[in-house]
Write a structure and sequence with these properties.
Blueprint: H1 18-36, H2 63-81
């Protein structure tokens, strides 16, 4: 069973440290693997607009972390769409 990665003690990641980056990359790789199974054909996440940041109402997530996650999701989707 995969471990849950909801941030530091469930509070979100405040800064994009190398350790945080590694956890997020692991999660993005998992999403990529799921997309490549063919059982999924889209990725949805909460955002105020199509090009906006990730919605983080219940987590205190740093801006750099948020941008890294959104860029990673876009990268994974683009890579799996090829």
């Amino acid at each position: 069973m995969r471990r849950r990665t909801t941030g530091s003690n469930g509070a979100g990641y405040a800064t994009l440290t190398p350790a945080v980056r590694a956890v997020i990359e692991e999660d993005l790789a998992h999403i990529s693997r799921l997309l490549r199974t063919g059982d999924y054909n889209e990725v949805r996440y909460s955002s105020a607009s199509k090009s906006g940041p990730l919605g983080t109402g219940i987590f205190d997530v740093g801006a750099g972390v948020n941008k890294f996650i959104v860029a990673g999701l876009r990268r994974v989707v683009a890579d799996c769409s090829m």
